[in-house]
Specification:
Number of strands: 15
Number of helices: 12
Distance between the termini: 32 Å
Strand content: 15-25%
Number of domains: 2
Shape: globular
Structural class: alpha+beta
Order of helices and strands: EHHHEEEEEEHHHHHEEEHEHEHEEEH
Amino acid sequence: MAAPLSRGTCPEAGLDADEIGLIVPELSTTLDAAPSGHPWCAGAVVLAGRGHVVALHEAVGWAVRYRAYDEPAGRGVELPAAERVPMRPGTVFDLASLTKLFTAVAAVQQILAGTLDPDRPLTAYVPGLAPGLTLRHLLTHTSGLQPELPLYELPGPAERAARLAAEQPRTPPGERRCYSDLNLLLTQTVLEQVTGRPLDRLVADGITTPLGMTATRFAPPPSWLPRTAATEDQRRPWGKLDRGMVRGTVHDENAYAMGGVAGHAGLFSTAWDLALFATALLDGTLPLEPGLGFERDQPWFMGALAGRGALGHTGFTGTSLVLDPSSGAYLVLLANTVHPVRHTQGSAPRAAAATRLARALLPTRRPGPGQRKMPVWPRE
């Protein structure tokens, strides 16, 4: 069980208050409409901390701002002010690809338990998959598989599973990196085969329940809807399905077709719950292997934290998580950037917030407990 988080001050967290104090004002400027008609996001929740002290946890903007997207006008149709839903610190978000981190941790747990070998051919666990692929290839995105498949177009789970299993690498495994949702979908396939348990149970039993992450789950119940941020007015031609304004169900089309439980997308959570996840990774409560599942030192969303061994990931809906193992600091930024429609959003606000956190790290503070002893098994 991880140590509990506490809300504290910047000095208690070993962070400079002036730098942390600039994160929310700078983030608030992204709520204004750009010349394209799209603000960077309708609203956001940001959380920053170090060790087990959360120094910043605030919300800006709207969880639900728009009724629909007006394609001819190129902008959202805003709700009357009385009908909008304000963003709050406890707002629930569709995490999108941050789900991949949970799938990766679940896989590492099975490796440590001896159930899986990261370098053994996947065919040893699931006959019929492409020969030559290993779990390491999947979790490092070096499988050679294409980025995605339109599995949502197939009629049922058997057809989707068969199509995924039949996919062949476009380049030799291990030759180069190509980010692909298929890697984590196949990781899900392997995990479920070797454990005999569905992915949502593996994540709940191995991660969220032990950490007390009560606001994190796949396929959230209807009772969560009032506190959930909306995503996209999902219609063709910009979307792949015609669903209208999506809120409370997963945005990703393949995950939606899979009933909301998928290795690459589908989890919903809050900023506080993700801080619990972050501190558990940093203090060693959860296994953390930087090369498997986590992006490393990516300045485009990690800002000045990149270059220090920072780890993290982003999600298409506007979510991101950055960990700095060298200091024990972490940044959660959850935004509904696809509300009311997907657009070329960029990650400048993510990088700016991470840079503020990097500048806030006080050199007089010694890193607290939790710098993980890595790696946990031999590398290739």
